[in-house]
Amino acid sequence: ILCFVLAVLSAAQACFQYAPLDTTTSVQPGEHVAVEISDRGRTELSDRLGPGVLRLEGTLTRADSAEFVMNVWRVAQVGGPPARWSGESVRFKREYASRVQQRTLNRGKTVLFAGVTVAGLVVFTKQFGLLGFSTGGDDTNEPPPPVSSRGWWP
């Protein structure tokens, strides 16, 4: 069961994608975003985020014409795997961002995942005879009940 839950959770993450976000209009706090850091930003942020930061992922808490503030939950570095963060607040100048993307739901993948999950659950419940489904393989050769319990007389 634990394997099934982990598979569902990891597959559910695959239902999301990042799409370009127009930052010239107002960006709403609470949006899940991925910010790619420019070369200048990499240099300026290295003391706070580590050397070679490529991308920050997290929840935007504030955005104005000069800076972004976000709660970071993943940081990608040059030449290394992404590091998980626990939502620390990071403030940086808007000019340090080379591209901003918004996390959106991928409807096609979500519908496909939901269909596969439902089909898997139906097969699972039928295979193990759960919820009263019959597997059709119970051919027990029980003798008929005694004549006196049939409700009719011979």
Order of helices and strands: HEEHEEEEH
Rg result: 28 Å
Amount of beta strand = 25-35%
List the total number of helices. 3
Give the overall pLDDT as a whole number. Answer: 77
Largest sheet: 6 strands, antiparallel
Spatial ordering of strands, largest sheet: 1-6-2-3-4-5
**Class based on secondary structure composition and strand pairing:** alpha+beta
Runs in which pLDDT lies below 50 for 5 or more consecutive residues are none
Level of helix content? 25-40%
Shape label = elongated
Determine the N-to-C terminus distance: 54 Å
Note down, in words, how this protein is organized.
The protein starts with a helix and ends in a 27-residue tail after the last helix. The protein has helices at residues 2-13, 39-49, 107-127, and strands at residues 16-20, 32-37, 53-63, 67-77, 83-93, 97-105. The radius of gyration is 28 Å and the shape is elongated. A six-stranded antiparallel beta sheet has the order 1-6-2-3-4-5. The longest helix is centred in the last third of the chain and has 21 residues, at 107-127. The chain is α+β, with helices and mostly antiparallel strands and 154 residues long.
